Amino acid sequence: MHLAAPLVPFLMALILSGCMGESESSGENDGAISAQPPEEQTQADHESSVTIPVEGGATPVVFVGSNWDGVIDVIDGESYVKLGRINGILDKEERMEEIRANPIKLVAFHGIALLIGEGHNQYVDDMYSTRNGELLIVSRPSFADVVAIDIASNNIVWRFEVEGLRSDHMALSPDGSEVAVSASTGKVVHILDVWTGEEKASFPTGNSPHENVYSKDGKKIYHASIGHVFTPADRGVLTSTKGERIFKVVDTETWEDIKSFDISEKLAEAGYPDMSPAIRPMAHTEDEQFFYFQLSFFHGFVEYDMNNDKITRVANLPNRVPDMPIELYVNDSAHHGISMGGGDEKLCVAGTMSDYVAIVDRKTFEYELLEGLGEKPYWITRDVAGENCFVSWSGTDQMSVINIERAEEVVRVDVGDHPQRIREGSVPVGWSTSF
User: Fold this and answer.
1) CB 191, CB 182: distance < 8 Å
2) Residue 383 and residue 80 in contact, taking contact as beta carbons nearer than 8 Å
3) CB of 11 closer than 8 Å to CB of 107
4) Label partner for 428 (CA 20 to 30 A): which of 151, 207, 250, 387?
5) Contacts of 370 (CB under 8 A, 6+ apart)
6) How far apart are CA 150 and CA 33, in angstroms?
7) What's the order of all strands across the beta sheet hosting 377-382?
């Protein structure tokens, strides 16, 4: 396929934005025999919906997914010693044969690298394990799919193709039975059974669906779509070409919207009419009343009262790159990563373009900065106890464990190329691999 060089980025952007149609997605399993859930699955008492309770016979670990080389580093959840690696793209050659045979998929594959991946293919975005440490569920943007990998054998058990051309962030339900995955160009969120890969439900959303967060009781999903972060229309009247950017709360029984809104209206009401309405990562208090939203291009975050549907405060954090045009921000991300410590006292925030982590007092918004640890922090997750936050340094290929109360680094671990999502989970007892 020969395209005039100047047209290639334009056509790629059109395809990724859904303007030229999408590849067919079967949503069917494409792997070996599906794993079966254990006969008894007990829901452990657990305050966080982002950390998997570990069943007996499994070892608690931290998974660090590396976006550009497709590996998942597995780190002991207590000692933070690396136990091994999982290959997230062991079927790469098979997937590439399919992509090369489909012109739309081929253009999208290269478009993802050029427009979103900073020149790199995006192989691993997000991952969650089953509670017994048997399966690791992985979303793979460049392959537009989600797979379940048997951790013990490193074999693919099932595969689900998302709508459109790219998969993105996931969320695990509090009972560990399903994952919600955003289909970036499909404008939909799929709800998948973790054991079989079968689609249990789905719900529509805006352009570039992004973050999904389950409520603690599992009855709601908080979801944000962020628009076309790969376009250069970052200022003025052209910002409308970013697409539909909405926040919604979805009922997980009916899959209907409980509420849905464009946060630009809320920003204008609060006196911030010029701020981007694209909600990036989010955190919330234990009672889920106050949410803390990072927004595209903004160095800081906003506090949102979910009960009264209004922005209550704005936290401004340092901009260490004041002379950098916002068009050079990676995927519109001034900041990309935020998590709440235990007790709702402090937030851990990734200053992505400024290369720092901020520990922010929730009451006062006073902060301490941790600088000089790494480059381009691109995700933050707190541990089950709420004592530490895990930070991925995507520019220097490391992850840090930071004690939230003391605002200091506990340990730093070398991982794969361009780490992003970090999730707690489990592997079989005694599991390890070579590096």
Assistant:
1) no
2) no
3) yes
4) 387
5) 356, 357, 358, 359, 402, 407, 408, 409
6) 11
7) 377-382, 388-393, 398-403, 408-414
What is the distance between the alpha carbons of residues 80 and 63, in angstroms, rounded to a whole number?
Answer: 11
Residue 108's H or E segment, with its range, is: helix 103-111
Distance of alpha carbon 138 from alpha carbon 277, whole angstroms: 28
Nearest to 420 by CA among 405, 389, 399: 399
86, 151 Cβ separation under 8 angstroms: yes
Starting from the edge strand earliest in sequence, which strands make up the sheet with 145-150, in order? 126-129, 135-140, 145-150, 155-161
Q: Which of 421, 54, 83 is nearest to 74 (CA)?
A: 83
pLDDT-wise least confident of 23-27, 76-80, 165-169, 420-424? 23-27
This prediction has a pTM of 0.90
Which of these, 64, 34, 303, 43, lies nearest to 174 by C-alpha position? Answer: 43
Dist. CA 373–CA 352, nearest whole Å: 12
pLDDT digits (tens, 9 = 90+) for 140-195: 999 999 999 999 999 999 999 999 999 999 999 999 999 999 999 999 999 999 99
Alpha carbons 361 and 94: distance in angstroms, whole number:
49
Instruction: Annotate 186-197 with b (16+ C-beta within 10 A) or e (fewer).
Output: bbbbbbbbbbbb
At 239 the three-state DSSP class reads helix
Is 289 within 8 Å of 304 (Cβ atoms)?
Answer: no
Buried b (16+ CB within 10 A) or exposed e, 341-358: bbebebbbbbbbbbbbbb
CA distance 70 to 143: 11
CB 87 within 8 A of CB 127: no
Residue 429 has pLDDT above 90, yes or no: yes
- DSSP single-letter state for residue 432: -
Instruction: Tell me the C-alpha distance between 79 and 61, whole Å.
Output: 10
**Percent of the chain having pLDDT more than 90?**
81
The pLDDT of residue 301: 98
- Give the dihedral sign, CA 164/165/169/171: positive
Q: Quick one: pLDDT at residue 234? A: 59
434 burial type by CB count under 10 A (0-12 exposed, 13-18 middle, 19+ buried): exposed
